Each structure stands twice: as C-alpha cells, then as structure tokens.
What we know:
By secondary structure, the chain is mostly beta strands. Helix content is 0%, strand content 49%. It contains no helices and eleven strands.
Amino acid sequence: QVQVVEHGGGLVQAGGSLRLSCTTSGLSFDNYAMGWFRQAPGKEREGVSGISLGGSKTVYADSVKGRFTISKDNAKNTLYLQMNSLKPEDTAMYYCAARSYAGTWSYRLDEADFAYWGQGTQVTVSS
C-alpha cells in the first residue's frame, strides 16, 4: 500500500516563504520521479513542479519559476518544495504525487502520469 503525506502548509503573508515536504511509504522512492501540483478554489488542478528520480532534472510552471525550488532527498524518502516570494495567487491546496511507473520522467506535468497522491496541504497567502 503506497502512502503519500504532505507537510508544511500554512498561512503566510505575501512576500514570505514556506517549505513543503512530502514523505512516502510503500514505494522505492529513489526509483520514482515526483511532482507537486496545486488546486485553487474554483480552478482545475495544475502542475507546479517536477523532479526526476535522481533529482538531476526539474521542471517548473512559468508562474513559479525563480520563486519555487523542488528537491528530493532519496536517503530520507522526502520531497521538498521551497516556496519564496509568495503571492496571494499561490493560495491553493498543494499535492505531492509520484509518477505511475518507476524509472520514468517527463518535462510535462500531466496529472494523468501520476498514480500516487497525497491528501494535500493548504497554503494560504494573505495580501
């Protein structure tokens, strides 16, 4: 049974920072590329960032480039999303996900390619 759990959401003022983390169990974390997605109220879920299984390749949505950094610590089975210079439009439920198949990678952030999802952690940025 694969479990994915996000941590670190909260309320922050515009311009502030938050670090999200995500832990998994039930899969070989170092063999899976991972991603962060988010869903704002009334909007569809969108890809935020992705990282390859070893961490050498990353991809970011244009809206977060230069502000967010994804990283992966395979020794700790933990995925991170460092979010700086937060804006009110970053307010959303943030989800961590693992790709459906071990050893695969794509620069495309399509949620259909991700099979294992956490319950999400809320990030709220006040103006």
